[in-house]
Amino acid sequence: MTDALVAFLKARLDDDERVARACAGDGTWTVEDLEVYASDLSDDVRTQAARQDPARTLREVEAKRQLLDEHPDVNDGSCGTCVDGKWGYPTHGGSSPQPYPCRTLRLLALPYSDHPGYEKAWRP
Asked: What's the predicted TM-score (pTM) here?
């Protein structure tokens, strides 16, 4: 399951990057220059569409990849970053490490829960 969740996340991020790069155009979308072909869409809907600027998506992909790197499996079935429970660190007799994949990685996968490759066991 560990490798499967990370592989799933990396594949989704690759998909997001590919689509964003294909849509990038001049690299900037704004509400004013975004053409929408449905006349009944509200200003809020057009604003939301503009927020999906490919440049923003690419920044999100990079941030999520860095989060993946920040939460490694330390080869004993635990996350190298996250801890469970009470205050303290495992090396000081406090909290124990979170099992891998940690809650952070499960949360990163949650937006993709409608993808056919998403496994219910990954839910945080």
From this structure: 0.78
Give the C-alpha separation, 53 to 60, whole Å. 11
DSSP output for 91-124: GGTSPEEEESSPHHHHHHHGGGTTSTT--GGG--
Cβ-proximal residues to 35 (8 Å cutoff; 6+ apart), any chain: none
Mean pLDDT of all residues in 4-29: 85
Does the structure show a pLDDT above 60 at 42? yes
Domain borders along the chain are 2-75+104-117
Q: Give Cβ neighbours of residue 109 (< 8 Å, ≥ 6 apart).
A: 5, 8, 9, 12, 118, 122
Task: Record the tokens describing residue 51, joined without a space.
Answer: 């927020």
Query: From CA 120, how far away is CA 88, in angstroms rounded?
Result: 31
